[in-house]
Each structure stands twice: as structure tokens, then as C-alpha cells.
Amino acid sequence: MKRYILNSFIAAAILFTAACKPEIETPAGSTAGQANFSKYIAIGNSLTSGYADGGLYLEGQKVAYPNLIAAKMATVGGGAFTSPFFTEEHSNGSGYLALTALVNGTPTLTPVADKLAYRDAAKHLDKYSGEVQNLGIPGMRLDLSFDPTLTFSAANPFFERLLTDAQVGKTNYFQFIQSRNHTFFSLWLGNNDVLGYALNGAVAVTGDPTTTLTDKVTFASLYTNMLNALTANGQKGIVATIPDVTAIPYFNTVTVPALLAAAKAINPAATAVYIQTGTGTVRAATAEDLIRLPFQSAGLFGQGAIPYGLHPLNPIANNWVLDKDEVVKVKDYVNSYNSSIKSLATSKGLAIADTYNYFNQVKTGLNIQGVGINAAFITGGAFSLDGIHLTPRGNAVIANVFIEAINAKYGATIPTVDITQYRGVKFPN
Amino acid sequence: MKKILLSVLLSAPLWVLGQGFQVNLQGQKQIGMAGAGSALALDEASVFYNPGAVTFLEKNSVSAGVNPLLFKSAFKQAGSDITENVKNKIAPPFEFYAVWGPKSNKWKLGLGVYTPFGGLVDWGDNWSGKYALTSLNLKAIYFQPTLSIKITDRIGIGAGFVYNHGDVNLQRALPVNFPDGRSGHATLEGTGKGYGWNAGLYIKTLSNISFALVHKSKVITKLDGGSAEFDVPKSLTGSFPAGNTFNAELPLPATTSLGVGIPLSQSTVLAFDASWVQWHIYQDLSFDYVTNTPALADTKSARNYRDGSSFKLGINHQASEKLALRAGVGYAFSPVQDGYVTPEAPDADRYILSAGLSYTPTSHFEVNASFFFEDVKSRKQKNIETGLDGTFKTLVYAPGISLTYKW
Description:
By secondary structure, chain A is an alpha/beta fold. Chain A has helices at 2-18, 46-49, 58-62, 65-73, 142-145, 152-155, 157-160, 173-176, 191-198, 216-230, 249-252, 256-266, 324-347, 355-364, 392-410, and strands at residues 40-44, 97-103, 106-111, 134-136, 184-188, 236-240, 274-276, 282-284, 290-291, 321-322, 351-353, 366-368, 371-373. Chain B is mainly beta.
């Protein structure tokens, strides 16, 4: 009987304590600070659009960093955030690369070909009409935002799909983003003004404005125009710097030492990898020369009677290589653009997400909330299968870089994104 | 050159110990006094608290008890607006004691089976720290045969040999994703054993104030051939081979306690214990996988524990012939330094409050009950190794009951 009473007592005690959860106070409360997030618009390129794995598709669009930020802004007075999502039926959008095999560390990337959103044989994408706040357009550059010929609006399928038939070929990005009555903006633009050039092995193709380098002074001037328009009604916002193009797996996976080791495994007599530099010189490559990622699947290396890339008479072509002088040049442009971005943003009192600095940390490797993140291709977790754009996890990490900069600048308390809820690369079964 | 080396996915640590793993629940009477009582020959639990006091027990006895323990921990990631809680799981620290010796003789034999270290934490498979840990179930069960001898009418010494049977099951998510987006999962499970001793000195002065000095040795518990299972996409099974095993070492620290017992009246006694927990032996934690791959290297994680300590004050009041009441307060200093706090044992300095009672219906039979509460201070931390960044807050509730038969 006594035991009975005691057991009941214990049962009651357990029930009681089950209700007594520990509490953790948040001292700062919940506030937008000096900012107003009721209508946020995101200006930018592929990174802003959610482009990943070499394509724009629905899963990537949903986890684009502006969308993650907007979802968190909702807790501090943020309004709805609309994006030009592909439909579920056409959820694979432009198509993208999937990792379909990984044998002894060698990846097989296969294009996804179903549920595409192409509306005609000329590869125009499904149109999207209606309000758009995620204004990121893959391939958009700062200089082409002001495209005086207005032809880029027809040439870029991601831009074209957002335009009415009457607008196609009759507008440019700068005009397109105006009059959106925004209260807050993010601007991460300018990457392609240098990346387009670098991704082509620092070969500017005549007649292709996406492969040129934007002049430094022009960049500063256009960026000023852009910021003036976005802050015309005193809006607050955040700008982001441009990552060092050499911090991405696209230039750090196929390395000269790895190529040489592979060659030696087949022919121990191999002594050097030969490249053609931007100046036309042919020389032995060093670890400072960067080879583009697609070279690994191009099927060129070591081929031919004079083995490709292993003999001065058959060097790796200039467009596959960002040679060390080109690396210096590209870095110089990035630094110049970033100093313009930072000084212009500071003079306008805007927040700055220093993604240049952040990606350099990622290159070294970071542990965030128990997740190791680095710039390694496939396994690094941050970069998707194109070696340039971000995985959902990478987007979550970058969203937090933006959120922390906004909070610091405007005294807001936008909650951070739980990065562990977002995936890295999907590995095949 | 097509080789892409998988980076070290398992660079993060897998396991840590803290004050949180030291379970101070070894006897209902002492628990009711916040864990003080090494200087009191209260009952057969002295086998644990002070082997030197065992010989002063008047009767032979056996007892068994259990303290269903609810470890309620909460976490809020830095900058987040979401508080996450561990699942309600009840760990069952238990104790069994037997003490026997010929009446009016100078010696007694004792046996104790108890759980001085353990942890049961289940954060769920999808919480924000899942890549550091999803769950831990750790049990250390000590078996301690003991001999206690009266040197004089007022001085006793005692010592016991300790055999530890350890069980561990540790799980965490791996940051590699299946085609459906879910994360990989690692489960490490094993049993180990270790040896040590427990010795105590009990002195009762002429004024009836009693003193205790007790040392419980460290117990290095070796886990050999534990199973390391990795649930990963098939394309990564080469990096995480099936049927892998691991060896590890779990250093359970020594504790030195100094106790004082002060009789306030015929029916009331005050007990004070100060303990020094020598966690400094826990400098790093190493996992040695039997099969290594480029993605699965052996790990050696710095822990850099310092020594912990605790101070406990309890009171025992014999309210009537059949009923005794107890209460206690205490404070413990965490051995975990800044930068090393983990979700396995989200440790911090803590307050202890307790209460207890005994009911003795007959001279042979006794029921003891206790309630033990710990308030572990809120601690905002960024773990140096995993980068897990946020605030932990923990409350511990442990009601307990034991039954004793005496003769």
C-alpha cells in the first residue's frame, strides 16, 4: 500500500517535470530595426536566381538565398516574396546535371532531361508573368544590365521568360527592375563581369558580350547608377561583394599536379603538362595555372599521336586554362570591383555582405553547426555539380552571411537559417 | 586525374564526456541530501559513498533502488528564433547494495552495483545540431566488492575493487545526402570494461562530529571491437565499408571527497561534502577505426577538460521512529572549458536541490524516496571543433525510490 502511494507520487512527479521545459531567453527580441522588409526585392544573377548544377530548376529556385532570407524576414515584418518558379510539371526547368555514379572517386554527371520547361525548339523557356521579387537572372552582368542595344533581353532565355512579348528586345535589366515599389533590396551583381571572361579561359570572344571583362571605371559608374535607382526613395538594402573566381571548384578541381600524376600513372616518362598561355606562349604548366573543371570530362588529355597536353607541340589550348598571369589579372579586376562596391555602399549607408571574404574562408574550410564545408568539388558541400553555383546548403550559409550583415547594419533581428536543414550534393545509391 | 578524393567527412568529433555524465545518484538517503553523506554511516550505500563507514552500520542489509532520470536540455542556435528540446527519455540509474558481517565484529563485507556515469540524450534525427550528435546512450555500471574494517571504535577504513561494464550507443547524422535529400547516419555501438578501486576513511570524533576522506580511482574503460555502422548512399559505401569496427578509450575520472557530519541534535544531522573530480585525464578522445578509408580516418579530438568540483550540504531529520526527512543543496563547477561544450553533455555549472524521506514500518523493512533536481546554467558556446554555435540550457529531474531489507 505504501509502495503504491510512493509509486503514484513518483508517477505524478514525472508528469509534472515533463511539463517543466528549460527556457532560453532571446535578449534582442524581434525587430526590423531601422529597415523595412515589407517588400524585399533581390537583384542579381544566377546565384540570386537559385541556379545550381548547371541549370535553373524548381528545387534550386526554392532554396535560392533571397528566398531563404525572405522567409526569415517574415518574422520581423517581412511581406510575401514572389519568385518566377517553374511549374511542377516542368520542375526541371532548363535541365541540370545529376551525379549518377561515383566509382573510385570518379564522378559521372548526367543531364536530367525530363520535365523540362522549354516551350519551343529554339529553347525558349516557359514564360512567367506576374509579380516577381526574386529578380535574379542567370548570366546577368552589371554592364549588360545597361545593355544599350536592348538585345540581351531577347538573347538571354532566363530574362526573356520574364518579359511580355512586347518587352522582348525592347528593354534592359536596369529598366526591368525599376518601379517595383520595394522597401528593401539586395544586390549581388557583377560576378559575371569577370567570371564570364574567366570561365572562357580568359578568352574574350568577339561578338559575345558575355565573355568580356568590364572596365573597372565603367563598373564603378554603372554600380553607382544601379544603387542610385535602388535607393531613389531612400530604401535600405544590402550589397554583396564578388567572390574570388579562383575560390570555386571550377578552377580548383582539375589541377596541374593531378593531371601530371594521372599522366605518370600511364606513362612514367611524362615530365610536364604543357599549356598555351593567353599570350600564345607554350610552356610547362605549374600549380599556379588553373584548368577549367569541364576539362576532366572533355576526353582530350593525352589523346592523339602527339599526346594532348603532354608535349609542347600539342599543348592544352588557351581557352581551357586560366594561366597564372590571367589569374593575377582576374584577381585584380575582382579587387577593383569590390573596392568600388564597398565604397559606394558605405557612402549610401547600405549593409555589405562580404561574400568575397566568406568564400575565401570556405576555400580554407569551415565548420558550421557541425557541418564541415569547403570548396572541394562534390564533397565540399557548398558548391553544386557545376563547380560554380551553390548547393541548397551553400545557399543557406550565404543567406546567413546576408542576414548577419543586415542585422548588424540596421539593428534588425532576422533569425538565421538552420543550415543543417539543407542538403549538399546528392550522392547516387 | 579523374580521381576526386573524398574529403574527411568524419572530421567532427563523435563523443565527449562531461560533468553531465557523472550521475550523482547512488543512494536515496544521500540523494535526498544533495549527494552529501560520505561522513555519515547512514546505510548500505556507504559502500559507494565511503567504504570506511560501512563497518559502522548496525545491521546487515540488502537494498535496491532506481532513480528514473529526466534530462531536459534545450538548444537555441545562435541567431535563431527556434528552441529545440531533447526528447523525453527516462534513463534508469540504479543501485544495488548488500552489506554483511558478523554482529559485533570489526569487519563487514559489502557489494555495490551502481551507475556513476551515464547519459541518455536524444535530440532527434533532424535537429539543428544533428551533424554533431543525434543521440547518445551511455551507461557505466560499476561492480564493487568491498571490505570495511573498524580500526578503533571511532575509526574505520574500507576499500573496494571496481569493475566497470560500459555500454555506449552514439549516433549522428553525416553531411552526405541520399538522392531523396536525406542525410547519412552513423551509429557507433560498443561495450567496454575497466578497473579501479574505491577507498575511504571514516572518523567519528569524541564530539560525535564525523569526518570522511574518500578516493574513487579513475577507471579507464577500453572499448574494443565496437560496431561502426554508416548508413550512406551506395556510391559511398566504399568510403564507409560495412561491418567496420572501432576501438576507443573512455577515461572515467577519479573523485576525491572530503566529508563532514555534524549532529545538531539527537534527531538531526548535517552533512557536508566537497568533491574534486579529476577530469584532467580527459585530454582527448580518439577513435581508431579498424578499416580506414580516405573519408574515414581515425579521429583524435581535443577535449582539454579541467578538473571539476562540487559542494553539497544536506540535512537528515528523524521526525519520528518511522519517518525521516531530508533536504539538500549543492553547487557543481563544470569541467568543460569554453569552446568544448557539446550536445552530448551540454555542461555548465549547476545548482542542486533535493529532498527525501524514509519510512520504516518494521525493524526489517525500509522504503526510501528522494527527489533530485539540477539546474544547469544556460551557456552560450561555439564549439571549436564542430562550429556548433548556440545556447544550451538543461534541467535534470530525478525522483527515486529504494527498498531495503535489514536484519
